[in-house]
Amino acid sequence: MKHLLDVDELSWAETERILGRAAIQRRTLAAAPAGQPAEPVAVGPATAWAAAAMAPLAGRRVGLLFAEPSTRTRLSFEIAARQLGAETFVIDPGHSSLVKGETLADTVRTLAALGLHALVMRHHRAGAPWVAARYFNGAVVNAGDGWHAHPTQALLDLFTLRRALAARDGLADGTADGSGRLAGRKVAIVGDLLHSRVARSNAWTLVADGAELRVCGPRPWLRGWDELAAELAVKLPSGRLIVTDDLSAAIGGADAVMALRVQKERMRGGLSLAEYVARYQVTDERLSAARPGCLFMHPGPVNEGIEVTHALAVGPRSLVLEQVASGVPVRMAVLEALLGGDEPTGRSIGTERAAEGLAPASAPVVDQSTRDLSSVSR
Ligand code: NCD
Fold first, then answer.
1. Ligand 1, atom 11, residue with closest C-alpha
2. 98 in the Ramachandran plot: left (φ > 0), alpha (ψ -120 to 50) or beta?
3. Ligand 1 in reach of 144 Cβ (< 6 A)
4. What is the pLDDT of residues 73-117, one digit of tens each?
5. Cβ(218) to ligand 1 under 6 A?
6. Beta pairing class for 186-190 and 139-145
7. What is the pTM of this model?
């Protein structure tokens, strides 16, 4: 594994390895006092061994380039990197040479020349991390590109959901022994699917893990999803993706419902915000049609009172904060897989395909001739 650009570029064995490693890291974090790595107790060679085990990425430099706002994603990458002993460097695109007209390619070449080993990157242009991966000789991690992909969010959502369903149903920790696989589970994603990179990456992991996935929202926001469902039916024949604008069909019998952020400025031309709330808001009452014990998820940031009620967002079914907390161990596992040095490197076939421009049809493609990426909006 050389980069993490999207989840469909990982083999399923790599995905399971990341989730398994995240389960171990989660226990380590829970055991460490106040979130700090435990101090080595032994002396002499054992101390060095223990220190190396606690700081496996000591001496590694991780750059965080976020060209879009972020709270949980950026911070959890930073905490994850530091927890593993790496040094972190925040590159603020608004104060970097990108605003002087430097290309993204030149910026990432510069960052590599300065000795960064990994670049965690969020960008408003779909495909930007693939461009960066061509010019950066370390590891590139996509922390969200345009409307296209958000692989670590999908991994942490899968991790959180497996654990929560296993806990709900009294099963062993699904992530550690595989018993939490989502075969037979029904999951609904409701909201602004058109603009959601979270939904696109989640569709791959949830369907690949065996869930029946229902995606639901107003028709205009389902554009491109029938095509994606047809593509997944070929690539993941045992999975199922249902596209519907009928909320009760999406929620009926669901084990988990994930709401997506609905932005006021995106309502034009279709439904009004009030109509959206009336037809699609996820509420405790509406979840009565779901499976008893149905769980609620949201990648955040949440607009309470729009895509979900306050009561549900903060209530006992809600996994919202659990999702945030899972971000640290899952991103630790990703950084370890990329920088730990225990695996052969090399671009996967998926990376080559994406670099050739085979991103989902609904995703805008990066114009590599753009000189000033920071000033270009979608
Ligand atoms: C999302 C994102 O930025 O893609 N949030 C996140 O990373 N947890 C979702 C959103 O912005 O609506």
1. 301
2. alpha
3. yes
4. 999 999 999 999 999 999 988 877 777 778 899 999 999 999 999
5. no
6. unpaired
7. 0.86
